[in-house]
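Worked Example 4.2. Consider the chain below.
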Amino acid sequence: MADLQSKLEAALTEAVAAALGDEHRDADPLVRPSNDPKFGDFQANLAMGLGKKLGAKPRDLAEQIVAELGDAGGLLDRPAEVAGPGFINMALSAPALNDAAAQLQPPTQTSAAATPEHVVIDYAGPNLAKEMHIGHLRSTIIGDALARVLTHLGHTVTRQNHIGDWGTQFGMLLQHLIETGWNPQGDHRIADLNTLYQEAKQRDDNEPAFAEAARKRVVALQSGEPEARAIWLALIDESVRHMNEVFTRLGVLLTDDDLKPESFYNDKLQETCALLEQAGVAKVSDGALCVFGESEDAAPLIIRKSDGGYGYATTDLAAVRYRVQEVGADRVVYVVDHRQREHFHKFFAAAQKAGWIGEGVRLDYVPFGTILGKDRKPFKTREGTNVRLGDVLDEAVQRAERVIAEKNPDLPADERNDVARAVGIGAVKYADLSNDRVKDYVFDWDRMLSLEGNTAPYLLYSYARIQSIFRKGGVTPDEAAGFAIDVSESGERQLVLKLAQFDAAVASVGESLEPHRLCTYLFELATLYHRFYESCPVLKAEDEPTKHSRLALCGLVAATLKRGLDLLGIRVVERM
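Applying the procedure from the previous section yields the following structure tokens:
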């Protein structure tokens, strides 16, 4: 499609030069797929810019360009048409479309980026010593999808799980455990830690003396106090075990090798403060080291507290310096919820002022909205506590198993269980990723598990349906890949054009960091496939060449769905 689009752009460039003069040859043709058959296959919007530049009506200019364009050297089925204020609609000729179809290949594991970058992605990042809850879902799966997409695009991706293992919550928990004689050598599970954390939080909220001792305990931990460190290590071990268990169920790529906890930067914090102070970026105010914005009336970024302790702003600054200067990042991506927007604005500015962000290095904050219940309030249990992520995944699989049993009651139990895991977990992930990430969304079991609409079950069923065709036809996808594609029907035409847009859809995610763009593409592809299936018989085609052509199209759709879903971290199933 890129080659076909570039040929159209070249033809338009020549038409502009012929119609308006060679000095306008540099006008951007602005050719885009139209995605609507009634407008043709492609639409160009160059007349708008030329109209503004020349002081002429865009529609008049478009008509002059179309007159010179003709059939664009055989690329067009009929003369281009001018629509609206000056859009140029173009329909491809059958030979041009078949040439494009012949160039289609199943998506590969990686592409070759025009300018490869080293991208560091900071995502997941749960606070330890308590169970992961529904609030940890979005950072984890959005970050995972972006890591997969950027790797596919040919970039070097360093995944970093910036877990919270060093902050205020640990001082609070450590103080409570020390006072109650907790034994770090005991057999402790995450549910136990959850209860202990809630007890510590209640004390911190209601006992001023305890709260003060907890703050001092943070400083003691950061200074290496043996008793605090021994308990802290026991908490970390169980927390990481639990976290990895959840990551495995979600199918995300993070491993222990990707752990870069807050504690990793502990020996860099003092130097970070000193460098900021030396550069004149930070100064002492009321005993604390602060970075002020343009207005000193605004709340500053506190780098070192008045009691000598460090906060997560210090860690974030140490981390970005490490990622750019030592890891060699060209781009650092932070997948963190929208409530941290002001913090990221401040610490990005501080890092820039300190001279730690070289020319050409990008810092991208990737905010996301909140998961809401049906009451449109943050998703909680009836008791008002955070919903445990493990419980959500359990229920997703159970509900999916009921859907699968109803859809295909003859599926063997073992296979049904495996399919339920793929569909259930995939449904939860896709429901999240298919929404514009900056917006809140309502967690709705019925909608996310529906076999209709823009859902994972719909896409997974589409893939499984194609595999069923191959099984019934006694043909493998590899065999079908060798068949020639000959496009004649509208349904075939639309599939070829949509298949050719896969690379552009993935590239748009890599630039915008918005996974829902890929979800939209996959849903549109699956929808077009179902229309094709209804209007263009495959196994009962009128002749063998047509049957082979349509099997080849089916294979390309299946491979594209599988690769696209894999980039979202969703596993396909062969039967549903």
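Residues 2-102 form a domain with the Gyrase A; domain 2 fold (CATH 3.30.1360.70). The mean pLDDT is 93. Compare this with Example 4.1 before moving on.
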